[in-house]
Specification:
Helix content: under 10%
Oligomer: single chain
Largest sheet: 8 strands, antiparallel
Shape: globular
Strand content: over 45%
Distance between the termini: 43 Å
């Protein structure tokens, strides 16, 4: 029997309602399910208003073993949590399992666990996943100047992708120490920006790298990435992954050619341009994109950041996008980064914006309209920020805010009301970008900063 043995056969079977519903049967076509255990995906996120799809994956701990991963929309008859998956060891002695929860293509929660096949295991998708108490300190630096950093979850755990010097490299934690796992062979790609997202439906974060040439797709396999080919022929200035058509797989929106382009995914990482998706939408020099359900209708919307022009909100229809007039203040901004997250805990996505110069902005969602509350919710006196990240970093349920500029990193603690205060600072030379990821896979997020001296890990 193969060494990964949680193989879905499309048709789900109903299990005991007290234990939830089964989303797959184990490897019936490959042999008996000897030694099978049950993996349960639970949590307190409501279905579908809190989570409407999950991606479940199981992989042999042996790098040469097999892997299973599949996206399951939480729609009838699977419109509830918990869900169960039967997995059998085959020749594997240990495995890792993880789940990602989505709402309108926006990841809202994730969890992972080790599987020893000596008993049933569980994963949870919860509203609040607490961090760790304590002061933040620098926990390691990996050399090589970096201007952009993002996280990638998948087989082998969470890794960081650092862009800099025209290339991209993988950074990880090994034995508690930050380590460089090598470059991604980007060839002619200048690697000035990127997005990490599961493009082929196996629950691993693949990469789309932007540069002077056409965007290049790289498919993750453990700590390695294989060339998935170019997407289109023209270069792009920004990209975001989103489920534009509510079919369970992630599509791509590019800013290129002086406009926006939707590339629809067939579920296997093959893309087709939808030339009508942005009919009637006019944008300028697009510098950043963000996607999530802003108006609560279950369809992913878009925020468009520009250079020296107002932010633009576009409501998704499933077939395309339409301008959401009046959804954002008509104030010209030179946008560098966008981040959508729920800062108030009310289930709505709010918007944080980092600018090329000046103080960041925070817009609070009021039924799909985003209200500028920067002055009352962000730390005062105002600080400058070229990059930002929002995540639950300490041991309460309120998101915290990380800001970077040339001098270093500032961390502002969140409150239950959605405000940020008491910023503490760490000196990091030439800090340019920051992301919040669980780089050491201990269940607690930490901060990873791109800067002039390399990639810096900051943890409590």
């Amino acid at each position: 029997m193969p060494s990964v043995v949680a193989v879905a056969r499309a048709a789900a079977r109903l299990a005991d309602r007290r234990a939830g519903r089964a989303i797959a049967a184990c490897a019936l076509a490959l042999g008996a399910c000897d030694g099978a255990i049950t993996l349960t995906v639970g949590g307190d996120l409501p279905v579908p208003s809190g989570v409407d799809a999950i991606c479940v994956a199981v992989a042999d701990r042996d790098p040469g073993g097999g892997q299973f991963g599949q996206v399951y929309p939480l729609a009838p008859p699977l419109d509830m949590l918990p869900q169960t998956l039967a997995i059998a060891p085959g020749t594997a002695s240990a495995a890792e399992a993880w789940v990602r929860g989505y709402r309108a293509g926006f990841e809202v929660a994730r969890d992972r666990t080790l599987v020893a096949f000596d008993g049933n295991v569980g994963l949870r998708l919860d509203r609040c996943r607490r961090g760790r108490a304590g002061a933040f300190a620098i926990a390691g630096v990996s050399g090589g100047a970096a201007t952009r950093v993002l996280g990638s979850i998948g087989r082998g755990g969470t890794i960081a992708i650092a862009l800099g010097g025209g290339g991209a490299r993988v950074v990880d934690v090994d034995g508690g120490a930050l380590t460089d796992r090598g470059a991604i062979p980007t060839d002619a790609i200048d690697a000035i920006d990127a997005v990490a997202a599961d493009l082929d439906g196996d629950c691993d974060d693949d990469l789309v790298l932007l540069g002077a040439s056409a965007p290049a797709m790289w498919l993750r396999g453990g700590f390695d990435f294989t060339d998935g080919g170019a997407i289109g022929a023209a270069p792009a200035t920004a990209v975001v992954a989103t489920d534009a058509d509510r079919d369970g797989d992630l599509d791509l929106v590019f800013a290129r050619g002086g406009g926006l382009e939707l590339d629809r995914n067939d579920g296997a990482g093959r893309f087709t341009v939808d030339a009508a998706a942005f009919a009637g939408v006019t944008v300028g020099a697009v510098t950043a994109l963000a996607a999530g359900d802003l108006d609560g209708d279950g369809v992913a919307d878009l925020i468009v950041g520009q250079g020296g022009a107002p932010l633009v909100a576009l409501y998704g229809t499933g077939a395309g996008y339409a301008v959401a007039a009046g959804a954002l203040p008509a104030v010209a901004l030179d946008v560098r980064r966008l981040a959508l997250t729920d800062v108030e805990g009310d289930g709505d996505l709010d918007l944080a914006v980092a600018l090329a110069a000046g103080s960041p902005r925070l817009y609070v969602n009021r039924g799909g309209r985003l209200e500028d509350q920067s002055f009352v919710r962000l730390p005062q006196p105002a600080v400058t920020a070229r990059g930002l990240a929002i995540a639950r970093l300490d041991d309460d349920c309120a998101p915290d805010l990380a800001l970077v500029d040339d001098t270093g990193l500032a961390i502002a603690r969140g409150t239950d009301g959605g405000a940020f205060a008491d910023a503490s600072e760490l000196a990091i030379v030439g800090a340019a970008d920051v992301t919040a990821i669980d780089l050491d896979d201990d269940g607690v997020p930490e901060l990873v900063v791109a800067g002039a001296d390399g990639v810096t890990r900051v943890a409590p």
